[in-house]
Amino acid sequence: MKKIIETIIADYKAVFEKDPAARNFLEVILCYPGFHAILLHRIAHFLWNLRIPVIPRLISHLNRFLTGIEIHPGAKIGKGFFIDHGMGVVIGETTEIGDNVLIYQGVTLGGTGKEKGKRHPTIGNNVVIGAGAKVLGPITIGDNTRIGAGSVVLKSVPPNCTVVGVPGRIVSQEGKKLTPKEMLEHGNVPDPELKLIEELNKRIENLEQRIDYLENLIKEKLRDM
């Protein structure tokens, strides 16, 4: 029980670390569905580990009704966990989440089939998962990784990476721990499609310049004839 209380305190502190809009104790306790959701999950998970039937699932169901966040009581979640905004978040039964993780609204940590056993992702420490991202299957997301908003991740990702796109692709691997400020910048990730378009535009401009040169050269030759 002491460990649970320490974990809840860490979750409470995480709200202030990860959300600049958080102002005071009363506001967090009364007005943060992400904090309410993890608080109820801690209770449900404790009862789940005691193998108490029905009640943990009932608490999870109540949690979804009150917050719009669905966390299976079997999911293992580390300390300092924060769900910002929260609506539409789904976390499956065999999901494992490390410490100091931040996720945004609409995130799904789900399975890809009806197989038994481990079928949901394992998320490392200090990970940020942007709004609407889907991480599916028994894959592992390494420590200090950022997953861009709207990404769909189907394969394991090593530590210290940035992943974007559908399907998710690694676009950078810097090898450093994220600072609290960087954790909040989940929208500031590289856009490989935009980079490709910019490169294509440069090639088109280069081709147009060469065509103009050839046209002018032909005109000069015709004048000399």
Automatic annotation (TrEMBL):
Enzyme class: transferase
GO biological process: cysteine biosynthetic process from serine
Full protein name: Serine acetyltransferase
Pathway the protein takes part in: Amino-acid biosynthesis; L-cysteine biosynthesis; L-cysteine from L-serine: step 1/2
Species classification: Bacteria, Pseudomonadati, Dictyoglomota, Dictyoglomia, Dictyoglomales
Location of this chain's protein in the cell: Cytoplasm
Keyword presence, DNA-binding: no
GO cellular component: cytoplasm
Coiled coil: 197-224
Family to which the UniProt record says this protein belongs: Belongs to the transferase hexapeptide repeat family.
Keyword annotations: Acyltransferase, Amino-acid biosynthesis, Coiled coil, Cytoplasm, Repeat, Transferase
Key word Transcription present: no
